Amino acid sequence: MTTTTPPAASIPPAAPVxxxxxxxxxxxxxxxRLASPYASLAAIVIAVLWTxxxxxxxxxxxxxxxxxxKTGWWTFFSDPTITFDNYREVLSGGGSASLGGYFINSFVxxxxxxxxxxxxxxxxxxxxxxxxxxxxxxxxxxxFALQIVPIQVTLLPLLKLYVQFHVAGSFWTLWLSHTAxxxxxxxxxxxxxxxxxxxxxxxxxxxxxxxxxxxFFRILLPLLTPALAAFGIFQxxxxxxxxxxxxxxxxxxxxxxxxxxALFNLSGTRGTAWYLLSAGAFVAIIVPxxxxxxxxxxxxRGLLAGGLKG
Amino acid sequence: xxxxxxSDLGKFAQAGFAILLFVAVVGAILFIASRFxxxxxxxxxxxxxxxxxxxLLSVGLVYPGLRTIVVSFFDAAGKKFVGFDNYSTIFTTxxxxxxxxxxxxxxxxxxxxxxxxxxxxxxxxxxxxxEAFAKSLIFLPMAISFVGASIIWKFVYEYRPHQGSIQQxxxxxxxxxxxxxxxxxxxxxxxxxxxxxxxxxIWVQAGFAxxxxxxxxxxxxxxxxxxxxxxxxxxxxxFRYVTVPSIRPxxxxxxxxxxxxxxxxxxxVKAMTGGRFDTSVVAxxxxxxxFSADNQGLGAALAxxxxxxxxxxxxxxxxxxxxxxxx
Lengths: 310, 327
What we know:
heterodimer, A: mainly alpha, MetI-like fold, globular, B: mainly alpha, 0% strand
């Protein structure tokens, strides 16, 4: 990393280009021409390595309980028997391994925990980007700096605050915590997007007599939709997949805990019951996966704009 | 009251109420703000737009953070001042030193391997026919929770005693058996089990590395690539002397971002081994000390340690970013 790499310019000039040969090949085709069979093979190996663990568990979730216990999932292809019993058991309301209720909880947690920080961050980012007020830069740097605070540092004092205000163990603890944890990154991301909007556009609106509130709703919000989507999908994945915050504030409470906590507990208590774990894992995975695939474009854009919560 | 079982409908009603309450509060603030105009109006609007955020950040991040720093200088019950005792415990007890060693392994190995794989894959699939599909295969684990990823990999590592007619159901052990080896308990044998946990985070983060680096590779000006190709640079030389130097700033950002993620890793360790068999890391030990062992002081000190370790990495990142902007 620290060794000095020769800059691009220092490549030794190799075989000279025959004169009279017009240089009309575009770099794009050159890039393509570079693809060799070995390169393709290496890419396929990596792709298979990355896919097979998930694929194995997916196949397992569809096999009968007895087969899962006795043979590996790869034997499925010589003796394919498909059953949905595992999913039925995991989703049904009755059994001790039921995840259905937790699945609902996850939705209840995630909806406000995405909407509230997006709205607050959009307002704050607007103020930082387009309103002149004393102390603006200092405050912005402070908010920016809060991104680096690991949430571990906040957990115990927050838990005590929640107990003091009699909201411990309720959805409120998760909504409030996820909102506070999301704000610094959200403001930073939206601020970056907002600075790209031409100043003239806003000044013209101001000259026409529009107030900040009008400008925010009529002009900026429509322009910001891609940025809001980018952050929305981050926050959705973060909250849906979170274990630490949920474990700390709501524990394993059946009526509040999200599906990650339920899955975590299942893996602790029924660690070898793969017919339950495989189906359970897929129930938990499917929602973020669908959201992710559907909104991948926005997600990538957000990533490139510097948004990954550590 | 608040913990009484509620119907599913009731839960959604609660969520709806929360959102409505939020909308009402913000709406009222905006309404008041829009009454002001001119220079005074700017200040009033700024206060209205920023007020809720400042309150939430102060209560949700700043106060708890400061409180934890204070608690880290107190004993287990948070009553008696003990100075730096908690910190010296972290660096002198043998259990804690194992934890620090593991954390260093995570922070060093994860970013290097994940970035290397992401970079190589990004180069390999650049410009091929099924690029988007090939990328999404590596990318998808990013959508999966660490708990889900842990279950997926625990199944790969699953061990069955090697005797009689018992067949392996974990892929890794089966491959070992096919190759004539004896099945291993991958998650039990120290110190190698930590590496098998690290693989899970690499599996998740390589997609992140690939995405960022692939975008940078595509941003390399075409004439540079053209020139190098006409000069007869081989594929390998091109990678070494053109691609890597051109995207160096992105590589640094990816490395540091993943190292921060590795530093804070909790879910993977908690879900796969619970920190047993010498696999614990700082973030997991923080959780155990704070919420299981009821040692507030030590837990707080571990959290502060995480905080302190993040700062230089972020500072370096910011400086890199400034430098690249200045160019």
